[in-house]
Amino acid sequence: MNCKNAIGITKGEVRIKLHVIPGSSQSVFPAGYNEWRNSIEIKVKAKSKEDKANSAVVEKIAAYFNISPRDIYIVSGQKSRGKTISIKNLGIKDVCKKIEESLREL
Fold it and tell me: 62 near 54, Cβ under 8 Å?
């Protein structure tokens, strides 16, 4: 699985393109790779109301990388399922390696 099209670096921060699936029975990251959208899929239990899904996305990814939620912010897509997030204080090689290893296990 090659997810490099979904992961990049801008202004020294790692950027990840996501496709969010809100209202799922369980929260999962990464939940898959969407080749058509070139994005990593994430499932969250929270509904997409009152910014709850966005908060759940940030919390889930922070827990996955074992970093503070303050090191993650949504760059674009605050009101859509397609989002780009930025992660501070992590290297792109480490991010890509961890995500690809997790995707192989699916």
Answer: no
- What is the mean pLDDT of each successive set of 10 residues along the chain, which is 106 residues long? 84 96 97 95 95 97 98 97 97 94 92
Tokens matching residue 47: 């509904």
pTM of full prediction above 0.70: yes
* Planar angle of CA 98, 39, 19, nearest 5 degrees: 105
Structure tokens at 65: 């990388």
Residues near 20 by Cβ (< 8 Å), separated by ≥ 6?
Answer: 41, 42, 44, 48, 53, 57, 81, 82, 83
- What pLDDT shows up at residue 36? 93
- Closest C-alpha to 98, from 73, 74, 63: 63
Contact criterion met (CB below 8 Å) for 44 and 24: yes
User: Rounded to whole angstroms, how far apart are CA atoms 64 and 79?
Assistant: 23
For domain 4-95, is the CATH number 3.30.1200.10?
yes
